[in-house]
């Protein structure tokens, strides 16, 4: 088909559908507060701490999270299953002896396309000043009981609902020792050929107030998304060097999608997208997924107080150090959970990201031909082509092109960036896929 650029319109945010609005209202700051408080009360959740003490250490935390998630799964009519995923991590710089690491993984099987998967994680291990100190108190309220509380609350509210794609809610361990739990989880998916279309790490999402004298920013969450893919191959590098695209990797498209569906009055949040893989000197579990070519992002609070992270609990010169519950804002964590819920629900209900999108470069022309594989989504309605100036941050124009798998547009591919997204019968839009030359 032929698409005329003059028929394009500007882009609008995707508003939440009725079910999503209901779901967002069910997210409960009091439950989140109870989860953060309970997790901090295990004393330490260090990966090398006791695995069989019923009260203190990572084993007690593991068993408690598992029980809670199983309770949520009981309301799912058999669609949510909860698994303890254990493996032995061999010794390394931060693991002195072979150590059993266990992820708790709740999987809500999709009704329509169960093979299409979206993953959200928080890490339930914690640490003190010395990364090998497995005995000192390490309450880890913000880092990262807050992220685990988000994951558990999402599992609770989603368990009673039907989604088209599969959602995975995982509390991972070994993060502070080297991202080991998420590395194992991502590798399991890679080995099984699972189509993970997005992953979010919630890590340090406890408060919008850094408690350092600066103005609080309780309605902002940062979303870190890489540009050039960590998994880029030399051939992909050559293409990028030739025609650009360093701002069009799949994680950048995911960042645009999250702003599209999660910045609204119902979440009450601004998603501050940061065009970096992570902060200076830091990392999180999304990197395990990026390494394997899965689109992934990290959510974190707007400004951190480094006296409250990775620090022994103590008072020094009148300053309270340590990652304590009292510095968390449960209403803030609930709003971050709503941002996650809006993203995951919208991803799961929309068609998957278009695959095999090609921009035709067989000859030199002043128009643009795009082709893609047909969607496997049962309620697919049509596709949209989007584009923007090469210097623009986000998509500027959208052209509905119907239920086709090829279109020629009277615009030069040399002058703008193009993308394709799928639309279902309810108007849910997929993330955008950027084309590769072919
Ligand atoms: Zn962390």
Keywords for this structure?
single chain; 438 residues; alpha/beta; five-stranded mixed beta sheet; binds zinc ion
Q: Can you describe what's shown?
A:
It is a single chain. An eight-stranded mixed sheet has the order 3-4-6-5-7-10-8-9, sandwiched between helices. The chain has a five-stranded mixed sheet with strand order 1-17-14-13-19, with no helix packed on it. It has ten helices and 19 strands. With 438 residues, it is α/β, with parallel strands linked by helices. Residues 123, 143-144, 175, 203-204 line the site of zinc ion.
Spell out which ligands are present. zinc ion
- The total count of helices amounts to 10
The residue-averaged pLDDT reads 97
Query: Which H/E pattern describes the elements?
Result: EEHHHEEEHEHHEEHHEHEEEHEEEEEEE
Uncertain runs are: none
Largest sheet: 8 strands, mixed
The count of β-strands is: 19
User: What percent strand?
Assistant: 15-25%
Summarize the model shown.
With 438 residues, the chain is an alpha/beta fold.
Question: Topology, please?
Answer:
Blueprint: E1 2-3, E2 9-10, H1 18-26, H2 29-40, H3 58-74, E3 80-89, E4 99-108, E5 113-123, H4 141-159, E6 165-172, H5 175-178, H6 180-191, E7 195-202, E8 220-224, H7 234-243, H8 250-262, E9 270-274, H9 286-290, E10 296-300, E11 314-316, E12 319-321, H10 330-349, E13 358-359, E14 368-371, E15 380-389, E16 397-402, E17 406-409, E18 416-424, E19 436-437
Parallel strand pairs: 1-17, 5-6, 5-7, 7-10, 8-9, 13-19
Antiparallel strand pairs: 2-16, 3-4, 4-6, 8-10, 11-12, 13-14, 14-17, 15-16, 15-18
Helix pairs in contact: 2-4, 2-10, 3-4, 4-10, 8-10
The chain binds zinc ion.
